[in-house]
Amino acid sequence: MRPRTMVFLLAGVGLAGVLLLNGAPAIGQAPAKAPKSGGVLTLAQREETPQGFAIHETSTVSTTWPAMPCFSNLVIFDPLKQQEATDTVIGELAEKWSWQDNYRNLVFFLRKGVKWHDGQPFTSKDVKFTFDMLREAPDAAAKLRINPRKDWYANVQNVEAPDPHTVIFHLKRPQPSLLLMLASGYTPVYAAHVPPAQYRTACVGTGPYKLKEWRKGEFIEYVKNPDYFVKGRPYLDGIKYVIIKERGTRVAALQAGQVDAAFPGDTSKTTAEQLKKAVPQMVITRAAENVNENVIMNTKKPPFDNVKARLAVAHAIDRRALNQAVHQGGAAIGVSMPSKPWGVWGILDKDLAALPGYGKPADEKAAGKKLMAELGFSPDKPAKVEIVTRAIAVYVDMASFIINELKQIGIEATLKQIETAQWHAMATRGEYQIGANLTGIGIDDPDANYYENFACNSPRNYTFYCNEQVTAMLDTQSGEIDPKKRLALVVDIQKKLEMDAARPTLTWRVDNFAQWPHVKNLVPHNNFYNYGRLQEVWVDK
Amino acid sequence: MKTYIAQRLGIAILTLFGMSVVIFVLLRLAPGDIVDVLFSAAGYVNPSEKQAILKELGMDKPYWRQYVEWITQIFHGDLGKSYRYDLPAWQIIRPLIPVTVELAILSTIVAVLLGVPTGIVSAVRQDSTLDYAMRVFSLAGLSMPSFWLGMVIILTLVSWLGWIPPLTYVRPTENFWLHSVQFLLPALAVGYRSSALIMRITRSAMLEVLREDYIRTAWAKGQNERAVVWRHALKNAILPVVTVIGIEFAFLIGGLVVTETVFNLPGVARFLVEAILWRDYPIVQNLVMFIAIVVILSNLAVDLLYGVLDPRVRYAG
Predict the structure, then answer these.
(1) pTM of the predicted model as reported, rounded to 2 decimal places
(2) Which of residues 211-270 of B touch A (CB under 8 A)?
(3) Is the dihedral of CA A374, A376, A379, A385 positive or negative?
């Protein structure tokens, strides 16, 4: 083979690889063009941002999506790649970084000449301020009112700022996941000279866009940051997030072209089909939200303090039927980590079939019924429980389906809807027997998921599941620096959690992100918390 | 007259006091508070952190003290601070009022323009085809919730024209034409429902009056239809209609929740529901008091209008 042919062949293979990794261009997308500067992007926002721009004080995409353009992280997931992983992490405020001392120290070399939106210089002092505050270091200069991701930094022993452009994260033990956590949309760097409370009403960041106006209940408007540290970015002159509470109106606004793209996670399979029918040129991209539907069972209250009862529930619920009934087949099936192509850690289909709830529906129901019979219950003499869920349609639909499934194995569940104001208080206090729940995870990584939802004493471990063996397994995988070995350990953990029916996953939600074809470089990730920076987005009008 | 107004205002103050107690107590009886909602966005609740925030917001004080502080603040022209936005409540509430008042006025105008003439025609042409058609028209208006009608309007426009009215509030000073379009459609949706009620009241009041002896006398004297209907009948039938218009207007100030949501208008009602869900007590309390004031004033205006419309009405001092 001639060298030139070889080069073309390799380039072709490489391109195919990139397409496979990143997903093929979505239907309706034109071939790539040279980016143009200018224009304002109008986006739909499903609700007022809770806590303004204070990303560190919330855990919702309703905050990260409209607040991310204001900020920068040390590192971020490549905005143009749909699947997030260690190798898609790129520098943002950090020009480069280096793991040292066998993954015990993570050293960041910061960009020089970066300015906050108020003109103050950005230095390593800001980074230390932010992460000391997040990990609640004894000598932290500030404290957050609510700190939902403190656990992410539990392994950070110290943050050192030896000079204005170097920061070192000293870890208690190796933890490769830390880099991914720092790349999340949930991890912006705050300004040390701005009180954290101020971010609830205004935004001083180093990001590509500066806050122009936040008209409460109406819109959030940004303008291009002329001092942005990446030359030639952002392309847009501004972004406007229009707050539209009513879902039908949001869809109509997108269809009528009043907004250029949907709110992440807002477009169901059915809605996407309707939009595509009405506007054939609409670009729809399927992308995981990294949000799963799950059953929480209080392991401290009967009957679910008995693993047999929990396993019976896990067996009883036909995930595929749920997917069809509630999501019209639009969700993905998987256990506690999302499986390929929506995640990198999930277990393979062949392994899935052997776990409770994933076999043939009739066999699974029989297994569930048998377990309940061992506890003295049957469809004629059922165990009576109360199933709680949030008074929101997506939750209620799921709970209704579960009730019907449980009835068939000898569990008679009555539905109790809980208002948002009470939901987490009730779950944290364990004032329930069984519940239908949704869990969003900031990054596709076992550390972010497991320490938050399955570790003993975590405030978000609503089931109070606590298994020393699993805790040890979590620590082992967390410290493993060989990705292949770590994957094997994570697969074992997933199987163990399913066999304990710790918190059975039902489906992983998949968004059908909708945008007009004139919107370019807005690539939805398989995690809707992390692609809101929008510095690469441009409009071709 | 002056004494009557003074008496009514005195009663109004007592009513507002009662309202303030009721809304204050009801809000505290509802399970959960703003801190639970804040933690809800974080996915957990930490009791010690919760206590610290309650203290920061002044919610750890006894209820009676919180009530006294609120009322004292009102007397000093201070509505307190929104828990959710950390901004003065008045700064949040002020922009909402003109939106809702304008929508309520426009809807009332639509309702009157549609309801009164159709009611009159329907009564005068009783049991005719026209009467049946108008009764069906009004029944349809009563049967169709305005939010449903609003959504149908939006979906029809987007399906047929690929266009919907602007979804960010356009001030009249910015673009009067767009502003008018933005308000006209929701006003039609809401006004149609209210017009149905007004039509039916007008019809029944007119039918009653048209059977009176003095109307028969007017016909016997050879007066033309216009004079009989407009000068003699309508003038005497209008009092219950005015009452209903007043009640409808007052209802619209707080009752436009879904219409404001569907048309994405930043008004009082939509914001009130949001504030209730967030347990943002200062916003809820003050908005409810605002609605109560509008209801009281519109009732007073209707009562005063009786005297203008019907010379027989005298106000006892």
Answers:
(1) 0.91
(2) 261-264, 266, 270
(3) negative
